[in-house]
Design goal:
single chain; 193 residues; mainly alpha; 7 helices; 85% helix; flat
Length: 193
Amino acid sequence: DEFQSVFSNEIKKSSVLNKLPLVVFLIAISLILSVLLYRRVFYKFALAMALRKDKVLSAWFYVSINLFRLVLSLGVAFLILLALKLSDIFGYYGQAFLEALPLVSISLIGSLWLTSTLLTSKVTLKSIISVYDTQVKVASQSIFLLSLFISLFFILDSLANKASFSVETQTAMNFPLLILNSALFYRLLRCVN
């Protein structure tokens, strides 16, 4: 219904078509950054540093490359979100969903980066907070599920604000997420020494 109203109105339709080249350009830039740069450059840097003899320098370089990977991933997500916002194809509730997506992308990309970089690499979170070796997979799953439920909270909160839900309704909607997040935090704490 929201998409149909955009394309049934001639003024909105011409506005969308005028912004289409910019939207396509932003999506193309994000694809180039994510596919070409991400795959080739990071793997070449990782291979080059793996062959070095200085382990401290190698570890610092590894951490800085992974931080740059996180920033690049977030940048690509924001380029895609900017393209979606500029397209003007979303209606009232679609805009509410779109407003929540930056926080959702930070939450999901951050958790995926955290689990892939710090729980399975040379610089491990295990050495910092001593996660049991048998519990690394459980900790990774818990972190990802936590970010997923937090992302769902951001989406529900944004939609509730647009729909002008009462505080009581928002509390009733958020209570199951609070219970799930509490259980996941407890599960995550059981993974730590």
